[in-house]
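Bug #77: duplicate submission created two jobs. Keeping one. Sequence:
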Amino acid sequence: MKGIYLDHCSTTPLLPEVWEEMLPFFRDRFGNPSSIHAFGRAARTAVEEARARVASLIGAVPEEIVFTGGGTESDNLAIRGAAEALKVKGRHIITSAVEHLAVLRTCRSLEQSGFKVTYLPVDAHGVVDPGALGSAITGETILVSIMHGNNEIGTIEPIEAIGRLTRERGILLHTDAVQTVGKIPVDVLKLQVDLLSLSGHKLNGPKGIGALYIRQGVGIAPLLTGGHQENDRRGGTENVPAIAGLGKACELAGRDLPSRMKNTKARRDRLQSDLEGKFPDIQVNGHPESRLPHVLSVSFRGLPADEIVQALDREGVAVSAGSACTSGRREISHVISALGVPPEVAQGTVRLSVGWKNTAKEIKTAVNLLVSVAGKLKALQELEASVGGRKCY
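Kept job's structure:
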């Protein structure tokens, strides 16, 4: 498709090398990896090679990687699996107010099953205070789940400091690293996490595949029971083509990570500086320094975000009014609300997320179109206000 794609937090394009890696497993290498004949052994080899590639990207060992159906399943397996396995020790979980809905809704569901969940607030930049987390820990606390990098504002949380704290207290730490793996360096040993979620389609791999890192020695209850696949941690025949694709995407991400980071940050910074030059009253959300290199969240006072997104779409520019899981609904994001952004500003929040293949020309064109779109929307608002139309924001 033609156009300018600035929604890489939502999904990323599948790389040609990844597709080539997957293709044989749709055709002649179609065996079931649980079968012991040659067809099955070929599939098993592909799965284990991919497992090693995923592990290498995050500093793990292959045995610590469990393949899942995506980031949401990985989050569910980590949180529900740990809660079920450890409920005899306690029923208290700590998370934050800015987590992805895959974490928040899972925690809310567990509350209906007798678990107690503490939702930590964040500061104006979206950062969780490790000290506040430490104070929230009780004798019943069994799990902490804090995301590594926020999917809406890009803020990177102090997981390393949190990891030291939870490791000292003997409490499991899960982090949703869906937006960080393949975007910035991620090392599970340095972060001192016990569980880490990642997703294929966020790092130029296929959709419908993800992985959960489970530190050696950590036991969790499976969500899907059946066969003995994934070392009894996730039953069901493995999605071999997607697993092979995820492995290749991880290999490429590890190889090209420095250049990808440099390119995305350069484009993101230019996008931000150009927008600030065109819109003096624009608000940039997220931490000014501890932020993912590809994410830019901005709020336009007085302009509804969904109308900006739709108008840009008509001009061939793809952006988001928040996470892809909540876009299309006119409501203020729970992440932006947690920052304390006033409603009249919050409702004009747009997320632009660049990719390492975006060009300087695309950034310039997108900014010019955004200026044009904003001008037209403001003119329309003034016209409707003058004739007693809809409420103006």
